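Handout, page 2. Input:
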Amino acid sequence: MRKVVLYIATSLDGYIASPDGSVEWLPTAGQDYGYAEFLASADTTLLGRATYEQVLDSGPWPYSGFTNYVFTNYVFSRKPPVLTPHASVQFVSDEPVAFVQALRQQPGRTIWLIGGSTLASPLLTAGLVDELMLLVVPRVLGSGIPLWRHQAQPQTLQMLRTQTWPDGTVLLHYQLPKKE
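Output:
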């Protein structure tokens, strides 16, 4: 069965974007913070519509394909796309939990849950997220779009590894408990 990994950056105070949805506070030059290594393990992305639009606003679609395989990108939205999506993007209006349960059964590599928190919350509650890779950026935003939405019950995570960089950015990599 394929694993689902929530790999996401957050400010130190727990926001994934500024109040206007922008992410200009994220580091942009120098380090890749393990991104290339992680990206090499994945072939599928899951995004909410707001995250998809934010990615499009920041430049060309980055998840179209690589030298030896092609990404499939699923964007969850109740509304049809305004712009013609990239050929690798499929809009999904299905309920996320059932869709991801079926997707995990298909052959492939790691499924990258990019975000945002509105999409991640039901998948976390359903036990469909196997790992959390949280890149904590040493910035305090004070307000914005929160990483975490309401969770039905507390979860104890198992630390897999940590990594730090000279600029103070920290990767926290956890395994989530399996749902029975």
